[in-house]
Every structure is written in structure tokens, then in C-alpha cells.
Amino acid sequence: MFGLSLAALACASVGAEDDLTLRERELQQLQNQIQSLEAELRSRRGAVSEQRQALETTERQLGDSNRRLRDTEARLAQARTQLDRLTAEQTELEARQEEQRETIRAILRLAYKQNNQPLIKLLLSGQRPEELARQMHYFAILNDDQNAALQAWVERSERLAANIVEQQQLTDQLQSDRQQIASTRDQLAQQKNRRSQILANLSAEAEAAEAELARKEAEQAQLNELIERMRSELADLDFDFPDGTDMAEAKGRLPWPVDGTLRARFGRPIEGSRLNWQGWLIGANAGTQVHAIHHGRVVFADWLNGFGLLIIVDHGNGLMSLYGRNQALLRDVGAWVGAGDVIAEVGLSGGFTEPALYFELRRNGRPENPDDWLQNR
Known about the structure:
Blueprint (H helix, E strand, L loop, with lengths): L1 H114 L3 H5 L5 H75 L5 H29 L23 E4 L15 E4 L5 E3 L4 E9 L3 E9 L2 E11 L6 E2 L4 E5 L9 E8 L2 E3 L9
Antiparallel strand pairs: 1-2, 2-9, 3-8, 4-5, 4-7, 5-6, 6-8, 6-9, 9-10
């Protein structure tokens, strides 16, 4: 029986060894599959990273181009206003010149006659001294009036000539500005085409749901990290906010940052993930002006993954407002802004396909419901 037990044990040992070997092989195959998947994932992530880097570069360029285009159009409007003013002034001067034309002709004829009747004739005319003195006084007054009229005529003529030159220079500058705008728009169109191609590449990558979720979680974590880092730096700087600018006192009465339609509310689930919205998504046309909701200082104005061109305003007392997905940032870091000041333009930066403003409110780094702070609509 003992021999049978040993035999049975030996058989069992052999069977266990075979089973162990099989499991080791399966484990090795599984490890090989995992390594292959990891390699594929790294390759795909590298491609995604490359595309997103290209997206970031292009959207930065778009933001700069939009800002330059806005500045050029503002200068063009100012030049047109000045051109209208000069045209009106020129028209007025020409009218005055026409009104004075006959008067000047009469003065010149009289001066010519006087120059052909020398004063010596008057002195030798034999008239009584008092009569002679009175006529000489009249001549003196007449000459002063003539000189004044002629001087005014010359000054207006010179001013008219200067206006014509200035108007021509302004017209030339206006034409140059128009050409610059046309060139800028051409460059913008090329950049938009490149951006569309990048977005098409991103859409074609077919990321898995978990990978997409992980990316969104990483984007939120990156934003939270940015906020915490800024809070720490701002605590060291200790900005001195003017009296009467405490945003908490205006809670529930703050203006909306943009005129648009609310597409996503605070706390609602983000479609296709287990994450919730930490702010509002407000739909609006591309280029719509974005306004600061309260007095504060710009502490961030740059591109951030998942949020595109993002601008953050510090309002003091731990309160911050965030404005993302813009097509242009119009204020630089360090700039003070007041309630209603234009700070950006609505866009779809960050890899999105529809224009909208992503808006957040933070208090001591934690997201707050904008519903509690902004006016009801």
C-alpha cells in the first residue's frame, strides 16, 4: 500500500509538474500579450501626444493671429474715423475759401489801385491837414484789414494743402492696413485647414473608453495642480485688491461671462464618462466677446491640455474665475481687469469641434457652482 502510495504520489507529482509547466507557458503567453499591448499603447499615446502637440502649436498661432487681426481692425476703424474728420475739415475749408474768394479779389484790386496812386500824390494834393490826416488814417486801417484778410487766406490755403497731404498719407496707410488684414486672413485660413486636419487625425485614433476617461482625469488633475500651484504663489505675492472689490459681496448678482446658451451644468455627468462637470459649458458663436465677471488680476493666460486657450482671473480672498476653449486671449498675465472687460474670444481650442466657453469658479481651489454666483436668466 505504501508502494502504491508512492506510485500515486509520483504520478501526482508528474501531473502537477505538467500542470505547472502548462500554467507557466500560459503565463508567459499572457505576459507577451501584455507587453505587446503596452508597446501598442505607448505607440498610440506617442501618436496622440504628437497630434496634441501639433494642435497646441496651431491653436497658439490661431490665438495670436486672431489677436493681431482684432488689433488691426481696431486701427483700421480709427483710421477711417480720422479720415472722415479730415474730409469734413477739408470740405469746410474749401467752402470758406470759396466764400472769401471774391473778397480777396476785391482787396487785391484795391491794393493794386493804391499802389498805382503813390502816397506822395495824396500829400501834394493841397488838402487841408485835418482832411489829409483823416484819409491817411483810413488808408492805414484799410491796409491793416487787407493784410489780415490776406494772412488769413494764406493760412487757410496752407492748412488746406497740409490736410490734403495728411489725407493722402492716411489713405495710403489705410490701404496698407487692408492688405495686412487680407494677408492675416489668408494665413488664418491656412492655419484653420491645418487644425481641421489635426482634429481629423485625432478623431481617427479611436481611443478606448478607459483611455479617454484616463485622459480626462489627467486633464482635470493637471488643472487642479495648476490651481494649487497658483494659489501657493499668489499667497506669497499677496495682491492688494482695492476696497469695494470683494466678489463675495456680489454673490448671486454677477454677470454672465458671455451671451450664449447653457449646454452643460455644474455637477452633471460628462457624457461618456463617470466624471462630472466642474463648471459650465456655454455655447456661443466663435469670436463672441468673453467678459470678466468681476474685478481682478489675470494670473494665467496660456494653452492648457483639455482646456485650450485658458485665461484665469484672481479676484482675491481665494476666489478665481476660469475661461477656457477660447480662440484668442486678449489680456496678458499681470493685467488688472474690471467687471465687464473683454478678456478673450469664444472658440473651440483644446480639440473640440463646436465653439463654446468653458467657465469655472473656484474658491480656495475647489470648484463652486456658478448658479450660486451668477445672475439668473
